[in-house]
Design goal:
By secondary structure, this protein is mainly alpha-helical. The protein has one domain: Sufe protein. Chain: A (Alpha-Beta Complex), CATH 3.90.1010. It is about 55% helix and about 10% strand. A two-stranded antiparallel ribbon has the order 1-2. It is globular, with a radius of gyration of 14 Å. It starts with 6 loop residues before the first helix and ends with a helix.
């Protein structure tokens, strides 16, 4: 198990590991998607769009007291679930913690075997975008 994962993310990974069949994992993704807070319509702008995703995905990051809070939305339920999983797993971490993460924890969830190549690719793009936004939020504070 990856000890460097933020506690919230480690908990999510464990939850998915307990879901043995792909259908259960998909149900969990949908559940995460439905739990995601409403995303402000005015934040659905090009700067917040995740590049290289088949579906529309938007992510914002704000830094408060050294901790990152992400918000996001997608027009695809499953992609929204992946996004929600990342938001829940990464919120409250510091930019440094987020930047040093590698996306290979997706393998530990078992989701990578259930995802189509374009969805898996989308997951990596969302993850990279969140890392980039975490860095940018840090830079905008220090400037």
């Amino acid at each position: 198990m990856n000890d460097s994962l933020p506690p919230a993310l480690a908990k999510i990974v464990k939850r998915f590991q307990r879901a043995s069949e792909p259908k259960r994992r998909y149900e969990q993704l949908i559940w995460y998607a439905q739990k995601l807070p409403e995303f402000p319509a005015e934040d659905k702008i090009t700067e917040n769009k995740v590049p290289g995703c088949v579906s529309q995905v938007f992510v914002t990051a704000s830094l408060d007291d050294e901790k990152i809070t992400f918000q996001g939305d997608s027009d695809s339920q499953l992609t929204k679930g992946l996004l929600a999983l990342l938001i829940e797993g990464l919120n409250g971490s510091t930019p440094a913690e987020i930047v040093q993460l590698t996306p290979d924890f997706i393998q530990e969830t078992g989701l990578n075997v259930s995802l189509t190549p374009s969805r898996a690719n989308g997951f990596y793009n969302i993850f990279k975008t969140m890392q980039k936004k975490a860095l940018e939020s840090q830079q905008s504070v220090s400037n």
